[in-house]
Amino acid sequence: MTKYVYSFNEGSKDMRSLLGGKGANLAEMTKIGLPVPFGFTVTTQACNKYYEEGKKIDPAIIVEIREKMVELENVTGKQFGNVENPLLVSVRSGAAVSMPGMMDTILNLGLNDTTVEGISRLTGNERFAYDSYRRFIQMFGNVVCEVPMAAFDKAFEAVKEKSGAKYDVDLTSENLKEIISLYKVIFKENTGQEFPQEPEQQLMDAIQAVFRSWNNERAILYRQLNKIPHEFGTAVNVQSMVFGNMGDTSGTGVAFTRSPVDGEKKIFGEFLVNAQGEDVVAGIRTPQPIDEMKDRFPDVYKDFMRIAEVLENHYKNMQDMEFTVERGKLFMLQTRDGKRTAASAVKIAVDMVEEGLIDKETAIMRIEPEQIDQLLHPKFEDEAEKAAKPLATGLAASPGAATGQIVFEASDAQAAMEKGHGVILVRKETSPEDLAGMVAAQGILTARGGMTSHAAVVARGMGKCCVAGCSQAVVDEDAKTLTIGQVVLKEGDFISINGSNGNVYLGELPTVAPSLSGDFATIMSWADSLRTMKVRTNADTPQEAAQAVEFGAEGIGLCRTEHMFFEEERIPAIRQMIMAETTEERVKALSKLLPYQRDDFEGIFKAMGERPVTIRLLDPPLHEFLPKTEEDMVKLSKLTGLTLEQLQNRADELHEMNPMLGHRGCRLAVTYPEIAQMQTRAIIEAAIKVKEDTGLEIVPEIMIPLVGMEGEISFVKDVVVKTAQQCKDEKNSDLQYIVGTMIEIPRAALTADEIAKEAEFFSFGTNDLTQMTYGFSRDDAGKIIKDYLEKGLLKDDVFQTIDQNGVGKLVDMAVKLGKQTRPNIKLGICGEHGGDPRSIEFCYKTGLHYVSCSPYRVPIARLAAAQAVIRNQQK
Ligand code: PEP
Ligand code: MG
């Protein structure tokens, strides 16, 4: 029979898919003898069963829960619902992958009108007992029965005002009792029922509520953003309560074993005296730095430091811990691998290798390739930042630089993103409802909350710049103003924030590109020594090429020549070429373009040195280059001597119903071989020139796009080879070059053995290959894909992560067929998937020799290529 409930002494850290991360780690801490309040975990399987059975807890599971409650009573010596010595528990969610703040928690469960008396007597603290009860009604009402929090808050504030209490702690037991009566009325008004007095009913209702919270909107969004499968389900942890709010010898805190911001090896955390855990995490009260605990609770502090070290050595990873001190005694409530910024991840990984805690492979696996992106993002220009005077300084909660117009609501941040505007989301504090707005914003500024507040934790996870707890900032979310000293800023005003030092500036500060150095360079060098695939870049200009080389690119996998034609001085010549009615006229227009193209290629060859460079012949449909405005039409008419009407007729001729399936790629070169001739000439002449000038051995790779049959490549290759030979003869050069093709039409993959007779290399153009395999238009499918993702028809956006079952099958087939004909054929990928870690692993397994991606993704690809090797060795 399946077991659905495990006591903390029955599990271990290796059972996280069943017990959830929190449950597995509570079990592990129990196993290694750390002080953990006893409890049990209802498994993720029980959650899935709950959904399978139409949102009902199976009776057999209820029996198991009851048995575990009896065990808990025996271990604690307390009884659930007993007036003399009541057992109180917390009920918390805990999925296999941590989803901070996304699901629900209920504390103080077991309190009712009678047990509250018992707690009051036992603690000798009536105020504490009633405060706990009112918190419980509020949490239970809100989480389990969806009573609006605002209704409770209103009642609370009313009593506070009437009694003249300044702070919550000023409320007396009598005030709290009054609040409780009001809360009960609110509960009844909203649910039609009395507040449940029966602890067992409270418990079962709470467990169900946690199961339900797995599918609340913010949890679903979080899973989508973080690619966590919806079928995992959450576990529920039921744990005996310990109280951090029992007076001045109690407290609660959170801490990391090393800094999650920059990785420094030093305990990093915060605590609050006389408070419950939720007060810290919710950012309601600003906590004190953990160091201050040393004076306040010296023994507990010593104990905590020792436990932190035990945990880090045990898990061999930086830990994020929650603890509570109840009347001078320390209890551990949670530990998990801490979320960290990319800078912190890199430093911790390198330091732990040096400390002998982990090996290099583990260090490489510890870094999320996507996270590296953070290290490649701009910083403020040093000089400009020095010259600017900060308006205010908050906590440096998540590093990076951001500038933008301020908005005060998450929905406004989303709207701005859709319009392509960069914004800074300014809030008093953030809550999980703000998640979508935080994703949309360039940066986040909050007035309240500490380094572990929601804003700080979530921003660090996303790699988003965040300044939190900026106490000089007065945020009025209703009036939409941000006041700092004398300065009053309104929605739409520009500010700049630096999440690495906490500074807030007025206006927009200029930014600069970062460099790869220090620990980052170390990790990258380890990755390079392990990976087997090369990493190239997609670059169209010498600047992009140079940036990519800086990031470690080992060649260019795709140089799209069409982008070069859009520059102002060239576009007239290309338009003239398109409008030409005879070959002669076309050749004349093309000859104007030749020197530009040759210069472009010279620049690129120089930037790349002897690294391989693949240049693709013209690909897009010609109408893309046509003038769009009346003014441009008039200019073109003057240049070509054609009337506006003639121009319009030619434009109509070029119009296609499905241009992406139209006259583009090699089809252009079949109709107008002179275009391929000009481009080949530019490539070969540039290579000869750079070879002569520098002595570098340049071997250009000429790539023919959109080939679907052998005849096409054979026709265009013939043009290329003849032209190249002519150029070489003219210059008396022995330059070597190779000719290959993109595999981006399904038919090319299916007949790759035939195509390989002509092609010396294949580069998989998985953008078009995905488009044509699915029949999804690259330009319009966004809406459809979003819908498919939401409805679970697709797991990933297939234009981002390769569809291994379909498109991948074509790639695999083309690799095999290509090798049959030409065993040493060079194989690479240049579609967007070349920069996606999961697709990179697929490329590795399929036997590609290189991946090619945009310059800023090169380091990500280098790391992902190393991880692919490690992961497949481990299997
Ligand atoms: C592709 O189709 O994958 C490709 C790289 O070419 P483009 O995106 O230019 O069509
Ligand atoms: Mg393409």
Description:
The protein has 875 residues and is of the alpha/beta class. 46% of the residues lie in helices and 16% in strands. The chain contains 34 helices and 31 strands. The strands form six sheets. An eight-stranded mixed beta sheet has the order 12-22-21-14-15-16-17-13. The protein is elongated. The model has no long low-confidence stretch (mean pLDDT 92). The site of phosphoenolpyruvate has 10 residues, from strand 25 and helix 30. Phosphoenolpyruvate is lined by residues 558, 560, 619, 744, 765-768, 830-831.
Give a short summary of the structure.
The protein has about 900 residues and is of the alpha/beta class. Helix 16 links the parallel strand 14 (about 400-405) and strand 15 (about 425).
Quick tags:
single chain, 875 residues, alpha/beta, 34 helices, binds phosphoenolpyruvate, binds magnesium ion
Helix content: 40-55%
Strand order of the largest sheet: 12-22-21-14-15-16-17-13
Strand coverage percent: 15-25%
Number of strand segments: 31
The mean pLDDT is: 92
The assigned structural class equals alpha/beta
Number of helices: 34
Straight-line N-to-C gap: 31 Å
| Rg, alpha carbons | 32 Å
Helix and strand layout, with pairings?
Blueprint: E1 5-7, H1 16-31, E2 39-42, H2 44-52, H3 59-76, E3 89-95, E4 105-109, H4 115-123, H5 126-144, H6 149-163, H7 173-191, H8 199-213, H9 217-226, E5 234-240, E6 251-256, E7 268-273, H10 277-281, E8 288-289, H11 293-296, H12 298-315, E9 319-326, E10 329-337, H13 342-354, H14 360-365, E11 379-380, H15 382-387, E12 392-393, E13 395-398, E14 401-407, H16 410-418, E15 423-427, H17 435-440, E16 443-446, H18 454-462, E17 465-468, E18 473-476, E19 481-484, E20 487-490, E21 494-498, E22 503-506, E23 511-512, H19 518-530, E24 534-538, H20 542-550, E25 556-560, H21 571-579, H22 583-608, E26 613-616, H23 630-640, H24 644-654, H25 666-671, H26 673-694, E27 701-704, H27 710-731, E28 738-743, H28 746-750, H29 752-755, E29 761-764, H30 766-774, H31 782-790, H32 807-821, E30 826-829, H33 837-846, E31 850-853, H34 858-874
Parallel strand pairs: 14-15, 15-16, 16-17, 24-25, 24-31, 25-26, 26-27, 27-28, 28-29, 29-30, 30-31
Antiparallel strand pairs: 1-2, 2-5, 3-4, 3-5, 6-7, 6-9, 7-8, 9-10, 11-23, 12-22, 13-17, 14-21, 18-19, 19-20, 21-22
Helix pairs in contact: 4-5, 5-7, 6-7, 13-19, 19-34, 20-22, 21-22, 21-23, 22-26, 26-27, 33-34
The structure holds phosphoenolpyruvate and magnesium ion.
Magnesium ion (MG) is lined by residues 744, 765, 767-768.
